[in-house]
DNA sequence: CAATCCGATTGCATTTTGCAATCAGTTGCA
DNA sequence: TGCAACTGATTGCAAAATGCAATCGGATTG
């Protein structure tokens, strides 16, 4: 995962950022799953990332300017990862990727609820969601009127159940062994 | 490059299709550069793909349903590769990827002309371009009125000069050695 | 008939990945 | 106080993917 430049083409450079099997998965879990800690990303990843790869990618994404890291005041050893504006603006790409996958790939219905919501909401919904992310990760003022259901809430509801089930499975396997 | 499924999440499945360093580069050169032959992809790739990797990826993209291969009537040994509808609908993703890269990455101005055009044209332009691709690769009837400049022509003009320069460089290095 | 072009394939060194075990420091609870 | 559980990682090692150069047999061109 070296950061060399093969060419100055925008698509190529984008690929050099997340043209690997894990970077975008991590960003997906942070953006849509609300993960902020190492252990959350490790244990609640549907795809089961290895801890060394996760550590490496977090470091790399920080070097590239997509993430920042800060101490969690509640725990001296905890680190809290935040999305930068650079990462937040990946939302439209994620939405397109999800929409394409939903059409052409053997997606699980449960897991494509998020992609469906993003697709139906279109760019206005993406913008609202990005604002919410800016509020959570960059401390920007919230533009959502109080009482309004956030995009985040809508996105997570169904998904969390699946992820939780998966995490439970993994815990069982671990205790059996 | 095995085709296993880590999860049924649309974003994950999409990543398993082109979450590597080369698949999307090849598709980019076919979609925007009009490459149809092995040698074209090999010698006119800005990034310099190796022939074994190219062969492997073409095979893989065919297995995944993104490309088809046919004999070129003009030459018994030539194979002509075509985009499927599945690949053509990647245009919006490519456009988003290019737009994002243009904002956040150190793109070369020359090489970002394409991304800029796609961005300015927006979804209507993407649609027109996709129709042109369907015409060229799937034999669909052309919807573009005769005499109208195609998106393809606009996209290629500036880019080809850069690629040609690069190919010339490579030829020089080869003859020197 | 020789040089060149065609889509690949082979062999080999290097890099990346996946997996399990482990680390030292921190915290919660009895 | 003591100890288990949890924190973000790191290490060692085998397997897989990649990059590179050389090469293949057949087809075409001059």
TrEMBL record, chains A, B:
Organism: Mesorhizobium atlanticum
SUPFAM superfamilies registered for this protein in UniProt: Winged helix' DNA-binding domain (SSF46785)
Alphabetic keyword roster: DNA-binding, Transcription, Transcription regulation
Keyword ATP-binding applies: no
A Pfam family hit: HxlR
PROSITE patterns noted in UniProt: HTH_HXLR (PS51118)
Record-annotated HTH hxlR-type domain positions: 9-109
Domain of life: Bacteria
Protein name: Transcriptional regulator
Gene Ontology molecular functions: DNA binding
Keyword DNA-binding: yes
């Amino acid at each position: 995962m070296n950061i060399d430049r093969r060419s100055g083409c925008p698509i190529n450079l984008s690929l050099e950022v997340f043209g690997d099997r894990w970077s975008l998965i991590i960003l997906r879990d942070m953006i849509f799953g609300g993960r902020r800690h190492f252990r959350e990303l490790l244990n609640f990843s549907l795809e089961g990332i290895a801890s060394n790869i996760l550590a490496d990618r977090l470091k790399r994404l920080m070097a590239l300017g997509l993430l920042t890291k800060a101490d969690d005041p509640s725990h001296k050893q905890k680190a809290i990862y935040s999305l930068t504006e650079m990462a937040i603006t990946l939302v439209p790409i994620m939405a397109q990727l999800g929409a394409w996958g939903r059409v052409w790939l053997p997606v699980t219905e449960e897991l494509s609820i998020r992609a469906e919501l993003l697709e139906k909401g279109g760019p206005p919904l993406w913008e609202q969601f990005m604002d919410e992310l800016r509020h959570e990760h960059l401390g920007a003022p919230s533009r959502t009127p109080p009482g309004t259901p956030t995009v985040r809430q809508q996105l997570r509801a169904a998904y969390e159940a699946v992820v939780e089930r998966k995490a439970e499975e993994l815990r069982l396997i671990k205790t059996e062994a």
